[in-house]
Every structure is written in C-alpha cells, then in structure tokens.
C-alpha cells in the first residue's frame, strides 16, 4: 500500500494550528500540531539507484508486525549497533519502545529496504519538539533523523551514497514547509560527520545533550536541491572538489 496525506489534496497548504507540549515540569513548548503519520506498513518513499540497479524504499514500521519487531530486536542486540544506540533489550521491551514512538506525534519509525530486503532502521522527527530543538533557533518544520544499518551485507560506502541523501530527500518532500534537515552526530563520530559533509550539511556548533556531546549539523532546502547530492561516484565535500574516504 502507498501512503497519502489525509488532508484534502485540493488544499495546497494544510490548516496550521499550534499546540503546547510540556518539555519539563515547568516548561511548555509552542509548536504546530503535526499532521497524521503514515499508515503502519505503507511505502512512503521509493527511488531507483542507477549505480546499484536497485530501488531504495522506506516503509513505515509497524510495531505490531512480528517481522518488523523481530528486525528491530535483532539489530539492536547486535554489539556493533548497541555500541552506538545502547538500546539492547527483549522483544517486549522493544515493542514498548516502538509503541512509544508510534504514540509520539513528533517522531515515527521507518524501515529501509533495497528492493525487498530490509537493511536499516530510521527514526524521523520534528526537531522543534526534540531535545536538540532547544539548542538552536529551530524553525517550526525542521526535521531530523537517526539511522542504523542492521544488515551487514548492506554496509559500505557505495550503499551509504545511495540511502543517506534519499532519507533527507524524503524529509524535504514530505512537507514543503521544512526549511532545514538537521542532525546530531556524536562529537567523536568522525565518519558520520564526514558523510554529513559529503551530502551538504555543515557543522553549525556543538551541543551538550543529556546523553552525549554532539555536532549540530544542518542543510537548508535551497542548498540540498541546489547541489542535489545523489549518485556521487566519489566522496567529496558537497559543492567542492575536496575529497576524503570515510568508512562506515
């Protein structure tokens, strides 16, 4: 099934309504009411990757689907993934984790596929309501993402060059009011920062989040579509001839 927005397609701009969300016991955050999430299990994005002769697809994760839950549980209990995510647990614990994301209007969980093979997990979120949104002048529709590649067969630079910009592409397409896509790679994650720079993001500043010290990285809508960072044959800083060889 293909997911489509629930609002009337004749409305170019959905009705904008603001709500208040508590961020602590004494603080409320004003932000737009978020549009409904894609239906669980539906395809939300697909792009043909010429260099691989494969399609990269995004599917809204269904925490009630045993296959989806099993993938998440297996990947999170992989020591390689656990070193970064620190979310090891049982099936029941991971079902609760994913249900909490499902019930949270500011984020949703997605599985990444090459053709019909699942290989990655993503959390896509609205930055305004996220912890990082309190660390910079966040616009109402800025988006962020967390990523993990769980299937070892799909690791490697040539795969990253396909899926990394595609996830950002989806976030810009999903809502035309999104002016920035942001990220928060750990300060020590040099390879992640290199990939962010390859695809056009710049390091804005450092942030001290509750669980890590991070780089705030950002790319504007104008820059993303200007450089169009798809199908790159060599890893270079976007828009330049400066190259480096990250490994992931």
Automatic annotation (TrEMBL):
Residues 59-108 form the Acyltransferase MbtK/IucB-like conserved domain. It comes from Fusarium oxysporum (strain Fo5176). SMART domains: AlcB (SM01006). Pfam families: Acetyltransf_8. This is Acyltransferase MbtK/IucB-like conserved domain-containing protein. GO terms for biological process: siderophore biosynthetic process. Belongs to the lysine N-acyltransferase MbtK family. GO terms for molecular function: N-acyltransferase activity. InterPro entries: Acyl_CoA_acyltransferase, Acyltransferase_MbtK/IucB-like.
